[in-house]
Design a protein that fits this description.
Blueprint: E1 3-9, H1 17-31, E2 36-42, H2 44-47, H3 54-70, E3 79-82, H4 88-97, H5 102-106, H6 109-115, H7 124-138, E4 144-146, H8 152-168, E5 179-181, H9 216-224, H10 244-256, H11 261-268, H12 273-299, H13 302-331
Parallel strand pairs: 1-2, 2-3, 4-5
The structure holds adenosine monophosphate and tryptophan.
Tryptophan binds near residues 7, 8 and 147.
Length: about 325
């Protein structure tokens, strides 16, 4: 059976190794399975749930699209577009916000984290963000949604919204409840400076992450400076949980070399970090610097990116317009 895949990434600054291993690498694998039909969206409407500088936003939309393409997403095989260019997302989000319940949204942990202590000052958009995400997915009848662990709760909300809509409007199976696709291995890449913190765009330390557009020298330098501990590398997985930095670096190596953690452990068991880091730095440079070079090349040709996004939007619009037309009919508009 054909799987319909939909996923989105916010254009909120440089993508990094965590985004690549946790999301984009998986997008590419899914795309390359001929049984899948994939749609990948630069979710710019989601980005504006927190304040954005308009010029920066425009730049970040292009950069995220460039990172998709440079990482191996092929606009001829997958639909690649930006959310704000398909009006049905905002329209669908309104209709679904009348289906979703306050109680459901009040349970969303990401809102609590992002709004922080002063939630009175958070935008309403940030609060209803998961409903827009549900609209993104449901408009395309997506059956599978690859996301990081942090998005699991939002996906459950999408399922609840789909089921309630179908029930409320007596429209069995009209909206398809999507399945999450969450990677079991290497789902969370941690900061290079603190193995207990997620690698993140918002970390003030540049040394905490490898950006997808870093130069080879920058990558090499960051890996060499990554935090470690004073023990030699382990010979089994058992004690790794108490050595978060070692676990993270071994995980990065395993993921990028497409081998299991235990194979990586066996390869480096008993060796010291400086030898391991040398190999790891070379591997990260090998995998990431071609992407970095390609991103920077693509970014020089804005017309090329804009053309891909417009083409993608046209294809997405076709699907989403048809769905929203039927959605509105069911509601009684
Ligand atoms: P974000 O940058 O938060 O919009 O995330 C885009 C995608 O990358 C989502 O699917 C996240 O789950 C994933 N992601 C972000 N940071 C990491 C990380 N440190 N490790 C693994 N996956 C991540
Ligand atoms: N909320 C997701 C994130 O922050 C991004 C996103 C928006 C998304 N719409 C989506 C992911 C639809 C999957 C499907 O990472």
């Amino acid at each position: 059976m054909t799987k319909k895949i939909f996923s989105g990434v916010q254009p909120t600054g440089n993508l990094h190794l965590g985004n690549y291993i946790g999301a984009i690498k998986n997008f590419v694998n899914l795309q390359n399975d001929p049984n899948n039909f994939c749609i990948y969206c630069v979710v710019d409407l989601h980005a504006t749930t927190v304040k954005q500088d308009p010029k920066e936003l425009k730049k970040n939309i292009r950069e995220t699209a460039a990172a998709f393409i440079a990482s191996g997403l092929d606009y001829k095989k997958s639909i690649i577009f930006n959310q704000s260019s398909v009006p049905a997302h905002a329209e669908g989000s309104w209709i679904l916000s009348c289906v979703a319940r306050m109680g459901w949204l009040n349970r969303m942990t990401q809102f609590k984290e992002k709004a922080g202590k002063d939630k009175e000052k958070a935008s309403v958009g940030l609060y209803i963000y998961p409903i827009l995400m549900a609209a993104d997915i449901l408009l395309y009848d997506a059956t599978h949604v690859p996301v990081g662990e942090d998005q699991k709760q939002h996906l459950e909300l999408s399922r609840d919204i789909a089921n309630k809509f179908n029930l409320d409007f007596n429209a069995p199976n009209f909206l398809i409840a999507p399945e999450p696709l969450i990677q079991k291995k290497f789902a969370r890449i941690m900061s290079l400076k603190d193995g207990n913190k997620k690698m993140s765009k918002s970390d003030p330390s540049e040394l905490s992450r490898v950006n997808l557009n870093d130069s080879s020298d920058e990558i090499y330098n960051k890996i060499k400076k990554a935090k470690t501990d004073s023990e030699p590398l382990p010979d089994n997985e058992k004690n790794l949980s108490s050595r978060p930095e070692a676990e993270n670096l071994l995980g990065i190596y395993s993921s990028l070399s497409d081998q299991s953690l235990i194979d990586t452990i066996n390869e480096f068991s008993g060796k010291n970090f400086s030898e391991f880091k040398d190999k790891l730095a070379n591997l990260v440079v090998d995998k990431i610097s071609p992407i970095s070079l390609e991103i920077n090349k693509i970014l020089k040709d804005e017309n090329f990116i804009d053309k891909i996004l417009i083409e993608g939007s046209q294809k997405a619009n076709k699907i989403a317009t048809e769905k929203i037309k039927n959605l509105k009919k069911i509601v009684g508009f």
